[in-house]
Design brief:
Strand order of the largest sheet: 1-2
Largest sheet: 2 strands, antiparallel
Shape: elongated
Structural class: alpha+beta
Number of strands: 4
Length: about 120
């Protein structure tokens, strides 16, 4: 008797998801290796992800999306754009409301992204 697998498809790659490699978030099936942040492509776990309209983010980038836009819309700054050219809007001091969510304004010397306290080396 051959194992037929499941009929569920991974939302990220649209390939069949087998039970041993299945991860289900918000009722949607993913391969464990496809469950990644849309912004940084870091592998996510059920304990450290947030989703917005089916788009997956790690917690730091989900919060950064709110800080940059003031709302949870999808107009996230791409890392290539922010690294190439900083607009005056990005170099100004954060608003009082954004300061409550930011935690730190320190940037990584290598990539230029926000260095969160738990990530510092």
């Amino acid at each position: 008797m051959a194992f037929s697998g499941t009929q569920q498809k991974c939302k990220a790659c649209n390939k069949t998801v087998y039970l041993m490699d299945q991860l289900s978030a918000d009722g949607i099936a993913y391969h464990k290796s496809c469950f990644k942040c849309n912004h940084c492509k870091g592998t996510l776990k059920l304990s450290n992800y947030s989703s917005l309209e089916g788009v997956l983010y790690c917690k730091p980038h989900f919060e950064q999306l709110f800080k940059e836009t003031g709302s949870f819309n999808k107009s996230f700054q791409s890392p290539a754009k922010s690294a190439e050219k900083l607009t005056p809007e990005l170099t100004r001091s954060p608003s009082k409301a954004a300061g409550m969510f930011s935690g730190t304004q320190e940037k990584c010397a290598t990539c230029g992204k926000t260095a969160y306290p738990l990530e510092k080396v």
